[in-house]
Design a protein that fits this description.
The structure is a homodimer of 252-residue chains.
Chain A: E1 8-15, H1 17-20, H2 28-40, E2 42-50, H3 54-67, E3 70-74, H4 85-93, E4 97-99, H5 101-111, H6 118-122, E5 125-127, E6 131-135, E7 139-145, E8 148-151, H7 155-161, E9 176-183, H8 186-199, E10 205-213, E11 216-225, H9 228-244, E12 248-251
Parallel strand pairs in A: 1-2, 1-3, 3-8
Antiparallel strand pairs in A: 4-5, 6-7, 7-8, 9-11, 9-12, 10-11
Helix pairs in contact in A: 3-4, 8-9
């Protein structure tokens, strides 16, 4: 039986002034995108980075949750005053913002009753009806409400949690990828490459990215498709082009 | 004479499937944001990463150019089929997409008449009336049209060009920043920190970011303001809080 080609997409919403200001180099975008791609066949189609402002979070959540199958948020679910992701998502969906019983229990057990202060309790508050995304490294869970999944911003913690959201996701068709690295310049192959892309428009995405390696200029041709067969067809055309232009191949 | 506190903001629009897919780790966001912040007193208030799709680029350009003083785009101004930033910006603003005389001349001189093929010529096409942002490392210029500034996506090239857009920008008031690194956990200080933020809401942004260093858990308190005096006031309050809670200071 032939499997249907199922496209599932997502957006990532990075919430945090520290990324916007340039103080912190984001590491979550490529991690989440790669994970969704390889493990779930889900393509990330948009990323936004926004400040810790309720109005902006509400607007972004409403837009992105409408336009994409899933929205992954990172940041703003800790104990401090600038952690307002959960309450903003509640506001966006007009859902009550309240203690989640199981999350409260998890955090109380983790910190112990006598150390369970208001800041820590805050991490158990989320939109009513949320399901938990368990956190094996620092207890405080993420949550999923409607099609929005919220994770903390600290990369090591996020990385330890991501597998725990798998059960909530509908998977897409696996996306295959082939890269050819050539010692040439983009403008030498751009015309023919454009024609190949046009021919396979419906099936294969072809990207072209300059690089500098071993003291030489080169181009990475990245092809991506849910069809291995079409990917192989494109590879054949690219090899033909490379031979025609007598281009040196770095890696195929 | 007292200088007026002038707020100027910007958005960054990263155009490129390679960043969205997670294949390439973006380096331009923190570079541009830091540069705007330190050199121009301009705050980045939103970042979007979008695919090489005209419809999406047009929509983002229109939204961001309306909502922010400046929009910085990166990527999609090279010679290949997936480089569609200039034509998409033309489409967004309903401005003719055509050869820029000076850009054409620069590129023709750089490559030599006999090597100036169609792909390379394409890099001289931009919205009519654009002003050039010169490129000291690989010739192909960026451009500014209305409040949108377009740069290439390769970080080393972008870095070499950024100073050349300074003359087109209206500067904002300098943004000062102070960071205090403490060996404590966020939830230990979250309540008092929230009160300090509330008190200085109009003048100082206070962010709180957990870190792991020297085998210990800590929190960076980052304060930012256009007023050095208010920043000093907040620092005094933070030092008081640290003493009260007997917290070890890593760096102040």
């Amino acid at each position: 039986m032939k499997k249907k080609n199922k496209k599932v997409n997502a957006a990532i919403l990075i919430i945090g002034n520290e990324i916007l200001s340039g103080r912190t180099q984001d590491k979550n975008i490529s991690f989440i995108s790669n994970w969704l791609n390889l493990k779930c066949g889900i393509l990330v189609n948009e990323v936004r980075i926004i400040p810790d402002l309720e109005k902006v979070i509400v607007k972004s959540i409403l837009e992105l949750s409408k336009n994409f199958n899933y929205v992954f948020t990172t940041g703003g679910i800790g104990p401090t005053h600038d952690d307002i992701t959960a309450q903003s998502i509640s506001r966006a969906f007009k859902i009550k913002y309240e203690y989640h019983k199981e999350a409260f229990q998890i955090l109380e057990n983790y910190y112990g009753k006598s150390n369970f202060n208001d800041g820590r309790k805050k991490m158990a508050k989320m939109p009513r009806g949320s399901k938990l995304i368990y956190n094996p490294s620092s207890a405080a869970p993420g949550f999923i409400i409607k099609n929005v999944l919220s994770f903390p911003g600290v990369p090591s913690i996020l990385n330890s949690m991501i597998e725990n959201c798998t059960r909530y996701l509908i998977k897409g068709s696996k996306i295959h990828s082939k890269t050819i690295n050539l010692f040439t310049v983009e403008s030498n192959i751009s015309k023919k490459l454009g024609l190949i892309q046009k021919k396979y428009k419906k099936f294969v995405d072809i990207g072209s990215y300059p690089f500098f390696r071993l003291g030489k200029i080169g181009v990475s041709i990245v092809t991506r498709s849910t069809s291995k067969v079409k990917l192989q067809d494109v590879k054949r055309e690219l090899v033909k082009l490379v031979k025609l232009k007598k281009i040196q191949i770095l890696k195929i």
